[in-house]
Amino acid sequence: MISVFERWYKRKFSDPDSVMLLIMLIAVFLLLAVLGTILMPVLVAAVIAYLLDWPVSQLSRAGLRRSFACSLVIFSFFNFVHFNLYWHCACGITTEY
């Protein structure tokens, strides 16, 4: 039984890149497990910024100034979030009684 694991280990982890990938995955997992509550807002902000960059780029390519396109996308995003939160709260209040 030990020889089966030994062969698997040598086959999978003989490449230094795969060992480094495993070490990096364990490090990221431990970092998120320990500092997850602190890092989560930063990660969410980075994902939102990444997702909102595409519409800004498309509007800039269409001829709008980048500052105006950025303002328009941020305003639209905040209105979308606000509307969804308001709708969720309003539906919860009406079904409660």
Describe what you observe in this structure:
- The chain is mainly alpha-helical.
- Helices cover 91% and strands 0% of the residues.
- The chain has 3 helices and no strands.
- The chain has helices spanning 2-12, 16-61, 66-96.
- Helix 2 crosses helix 3 (66-96).
- The longest helix is centred in the middle third of the chain and has 46 residues, at 16-61.
Summarize the topology:
Elements: H1 2-12, H2 16-61, H3 66-96
Which short descriptors sum up this protein?
97 residues; mainly alpha; elongated
What is this structure, in a nutshell?
The chain is an all-alpha fold and 97 residues long.
Number of H- or I-type helical stretches: 3
Can you tell me the overall shape? elongated
First CA to last CA: what distance? 63 Å
Q: Nearest-angstrom radius of gyration?
A: 23 Å
- Describe the sheet with the most strands: none
Percentage of β-strand residues: under 5%
